[in-house]
Structures are given as structure tokens and as C-alpha cells.
Amino acid sequence: MNKTWLNIFIVLLLSAAASTAQNQVIRLYDGKAPASENWTQTEQTNTHNLWNTRVVFNVADPTMTVFKPAPDKANGTAVVICPGGAFFALSIDSEGNDVARWLAEKGVTCFVLKYRLVECKTDDPTREVGTRGPLDQIVKPIVPLAMADGLTAIGHVRKHAQEFGVNPDKIGIIGFSAGGTVTASVAFNYTPETRPNFVAPIYPAYSWAIHDKGVPADAPPLFVLAATDDQLGLAPQSVQIYQDWVAAGKSAELHLFAKGGHGFGMR
């Protein structure tokens, strides 16, 4: 092997190693996830659906996929990313992996969370979600499990902060739609070990969130984003969580686009 090909071979090996490290997948629990030990569904992916994007569904074994920034860009900030999908699916690219890649370019270490979802009976959750009737009662028992996954994710990142090269006091969570529900629920129900340092629910279904305890005394800064013409009518719910933070005297920032609809993600 001549020197040129040897150099190319070494570069390819290093690139492959970097890619593997960047896309490390971490299971949140040893064995079955607590409170869903009897679940038997198997995680699946659908790429041809009404949402025109790749979705993951039937998540029973929660995981995080790690996206690390280049060492010369890393700024010590970390964020857990929660894709949306009405708790029937996860829009894993436009509200997950694509967000992680964009933030990693800015120096943020990202963890795309696959949290537990409603069990789907078909192979197309984007159609099924519209055929199961009123969603409130279907989703209600899943939200606490998904919230627990979000809290566990933050706790794991904080516990292993040195290993990930992040500051344990700069760990936040961002979520879209149902992922925004997870994010909002986390913002109300953390412990010292799982407290996020910032929260960003994006066009959240706030009415589904677990927030009966009220805004915590040490609530983290809040960033909210939505579109006024959200076709699901969720824009007022973004205003509501913002108002709750302001009424409690906590740091909050709200952005409402005139147009954009629901589920725009990185699109």
C-alpha cells in the first residue's frame, strides 16, 4: 500500500470511528422500563406516510442517540431533544436528528430521545392517530411514562457529564408538539438530579402536560416557539405556559410566527 492510499485509509478509519462515537445509542434503563414491564411491542420505522417524513413508533425501550460537536466547537452545553408525533410516533428527523445536527454545528452536545409511546395496532401511526377516537384519554397514561424518560435522560447526561464533555449546569431539554408536552412536564416535575437548566417546549400540547404542582420555585428559564396559524389550535397553549412562567416571576421568552402551521420542525 503506497503512502497516498495509506493516508486515505487512515482518514476513513478515523471518520468511521468519529461517526460511530457521534451516533452512540444509550439505553435509559437496564431491562424493561419501569411501569411498562409487560409491554411486548417492537419499535418500528415508517418512511411512507401522511406526514411525509420518517417516523419511529411502538417505542418500548427508551434510548438516546448522541450527537457530539467537533471538539473545537464544543461549548459545554447539552440538550435532550424530544421529537413529536402525538405520542403515536416520533418525527425522528425533522424534530430530532436534524435538530441535533444543527445544534451540534453550534457546539451543543445533543441527545435525541426516543421516549415511550402509545402502542400502535397498524404499521402506519400517522393514519392510525386519526382513527382511534378522542386522544386525550388514550394519551393520558403515556404522558407520565414519557416524562419519566425525559427526566431519566437529563439525569443520565448530568451523571455522565464529564464523559460527554459537558457542563452539568448547562443541560437543557427541547421538545416539539408531544415532545413539547414531555418538555413542559419535565419543567414542572424534576428533582435536583434531573432539573433541566433550560426548557424549550416548541408548539407544545400544554393541556396534556403534567403541571398540577404549579411552576417550581427554582423553575429554569423557558423558551417557547409556535405559529399563530397552528392548524391544531395549539398557539394559545404556548401563550399559556409563557404566562404561567411570567406570573411566577420566572425568566421566559415567547416567539409566535404569523404563519408556519403545526409540526414545522427543521422544515
Describe this structure in words.
The chain has 267 residues and is an alpha/beta fold. It has one domain (26-257): Rossmann fold (3-Layer(aba) Sandwich), CATH 3.40.50. Helix content is 33%, strand content 18%. It contains eight helices and ten strands. It has helices at 3-22, 93-105, 125-128, 135-139, 143-159, 161-164, 178-188, 235-247, and strands at residues 25-27, 44-46, 55-57, 63-67, 78-82, 109-114, 171-176, 198-202, 222-227, 252-257. An eight-stranded mixed sheet has the order 1-4-6-5-7-8-9-10, sandwiched between helices. Helix 2 (93-105) links the parallel strand 5 (78-82) and strand 6. Helix 5 crosses helix 7 (178-188). The longest helix has 20 residues, at 3-22.
Defining key terms:
Rossmann fold, single chain, 267 residues, alpha/beta, 8-stranded mixed sheet, two-stranded antiparallel sheet, 8 helices, 10 strands
